[in-house]
Amino acid sequence: xxxxxxxxxxxxxxxxxxxxxxxxxxxxxxxxxxxxxxxxxxxxxxxxxxxxxxxxxxxxxxxxxxxxxxxxxxxxxxxxxxxxxxxxxxxxxxxxxxxxxxxxxxxxxxxxxxxxxxxxxxxxxxxxxxxxxxxxxxxxxxxxxxxxxxxxxxxxxxxxxxxxxxxxxxxxxxxxxxxxxxxxxxxxxxxxxxxxxxxxxxxxxxxxxxxxxxxxxxxxxxxxxxxxxxxxxxxxxxxxxxxxxxxxxxxxxxxxxxxxxxxxxxxxxxxxxxxxxxxxxxxxxxxxxxxxxxxxxxxxxxxxxxxxxxxxxxxxxxxxxxxxxxxxxxxxxxxxxxxxxxxxxxxxxxxxxxxxxxxxxxxxxxxxxxxxxxxxxxxxxxxxxxxxxxxxxxxxxxxxxxxxxxxxxxxxxxxxxxxxxxxx
Amino acid sequence: xxxxxxxxxxxxxxxxxxxxxxxxxxxxxxxxxxxxxxxxxxxxxxxxxxxxxxxxxxxxxxxxxxxxxxxxxxxxxxxxxxxxxxxxxxxxxxxxxxxxxxxxxxxxxxxxxxxxxxxxxxxxxxxxxxxxxxxxxxxxxxxxxxxxxxxxxxxxxxxxxxxxxxxxxxxxxxxxxxxxxxxxxxxxxxxxxxxxxxxxxxxxxxxxxxxxxxxxxxxxxxxxxxxxxxxxxxxxxxxxxxxxxxxxxxxxxxxxxxxxxxxxxxxxxxxxxxxxxxxxxxxxxxxxxxxxxxxxxxxxxxxxxxxxxxxxxxxxxxxxxxxxxxxxxxxxxxxxxxxxxxxxxxxxxxxxxxxxxxxxxxxxxxxxxxxxxxxxxxxxxxxxxxxxxxxxxxxxxxxxxxxxxxxxxxxxxxxxxxxxxxxx
Lengths: 424, 424
Hints:
The structure is a homodimer of 424-residue chains. With 424 residues, the first copy, chain A, is α/β, with parallel strands linked by helices. Chain A has a domain at 164-408: TIM Barrel, CATH 3.20.20. Chain A is built from 17 helices and twelve strands. In chain A, strands 4, 5, 6, 7, 8, 9, 10, 11 and 12 form a nine-stranded mixed sheet that branches. In chain A, strands 1-2-3 form a three-stranded antiparallel sheet. In chain A, β6, α11 (246-254) and β7 form a beta-alpha-beta unit. In chain A, α2 (74-86) packs antiparallel against α4 and α11 runs parallel beside α12 (273-283). At the A-B interface, α1, α3, α4, α11 and α12 of A face α1, α3, α4, α11 and α12 of B.
């Protein structure tokens, strides 16, 4: 196992700037598993700079649970996931949240990458050919039974067997719809927002997203400019990145309602299930979305039980990787809430499209109101980068989870001793 | 600043064993702040072994926010707390939960220790002499306003000004009621449980606690034995340490109801606000308690808003130290829920009594149904250890937060190179 602290100096251009994160350096606590057969499994957790070293140290601490274990097949991957999250002493540091959970995500995803490579399939197809029983066996059912039982999950998965072959072919032919956040970073001036919004529509996107929450008058001006640039037919989501309290979220969003926001994203703390429920109730018909910072399946369960969200924005590496996301996809299906994953950062687009494509082939069986976030940063560092055509994610074809970064990039951006950091 | 990884090999005797934590090695990620005047501030976060090194690394990462800053007075301590929890890049790893938040707790508490030492007062008296405005200024109000506003907090604190001098004198004379968990560890046999339960009552305790949740028949037998050993007049709380799903919590606790449990503690995941609310509703009149693993003020806020708990069990070093606990004490007062802090581990008794004593002098102004957990382990390692007399915590008199471990203990139990670990 190799662990690498990789950081990209994105704060220099204000890419990724929002109301809570003014100067992120998009980073990855990156892990490579080396198997006896010479194959590799790649995974990472995404951070925005400082503390990436702590995630790397946490991955090293979990090495004993990974090195020497079997990762072939869903049963072995289910066992690995549970070992990584159930160590009683390490569990004390969470449980199932924060740095240790991010570290587990990197390792779980690397193990799935290795398994899918061995099977010669891109992860979304590898997942799609598992039996319902195999999928259910990958999930940690503790704390879920008041919302979803294994039997209900089996029923959902069995129902989706019908038409699966056709949906796989459809994904391979047409891809999966995307929306783009690239126009809307808070550090961009109005002209840049308008130009990028127009370019997004010209490129085929039907939804874009703007960051809001730092200054209401700025938000109104930017939103008005973007709306008039793209017209009424394009969905414009807005994203406050946890900036507000409950009352403030309601008031601020109402002050932007005339520009027809498609959803308000992260209006308040990701921990605040009841806060989101209150905001959604008071803002209807404006829709509420959250998830990129939701720590685990237990909080997603409650967001769904409380009717707190219209869109569930899972993240590929915030919760403990593929296994926990299988539970989250099934929960979302049970409650009828569309999954619109969080992406961007570095490598999140590459990962998350696999999960949405599996959701379509094997769980929800619909793309209605479902879009995957897309941001056009840092894809050049990956060996199998995301391909967008006509505003849609094209289906990954290379075996694995698309998590592998190029060796040159790993060297150049390794922190603090890579050339990119030494020279600045 | 010095950071020390201290671990005690408690797993060798099954002290501290419960349904989720079979073999804890009580540990501290320990920090010493060295001030220019030669004084020191001591703080730590408590863990149960593996991963303690990650907490130490996290504390080192936060060093830049502490070294060179002013800690004199509540305004400076409020600023320090906000700097430690608001760094946007580090916030991404939580926010405000898990390893980085535990690290912030150690540093915040160390800073308060230093400030109280400089004032020549034990922390509970140092807090008690702050003005309502100073207390309110120490709190991070973000995400709280739908449950408690600064103005409401000021009203609570001002009301408690009346009689404060008398309550301080009462604390100094009579101390604060304790309950003991020492009889009830899951690894103990029935004979030991009965013997320790009888000794606890003889020593003046009116409440004890038993661990449950591994095996129902074992729980019934142990609870029956303990109940008949102490009689009906002694409160016996039970603690499942997050072992159950919602339905299972209700069924298991009902199967123990004939032995008259005072509360059921941690029936399910600490993240599951709605789960706790459902359990409490279905178990009434059996009471529900939780808090030792509740990650921050936002989750406590929701537990109170949802009517999910009868007792709030704050922890001195799980949330971000004194500042965040000030918010939690005020929330509990607003919602009329007694605070019965979590303690035990290593050093938590030493810390937490300061918070309960401040709660009595300056916030709730009552001890009704309020008790502080006590466990008789590892106190010998502290320079100002907890003193219990007649089942009551005696008021700490030494200046500071009672967090300082003896130098000999820090050397002997430092991990992995201290003599205690090298020889085993």
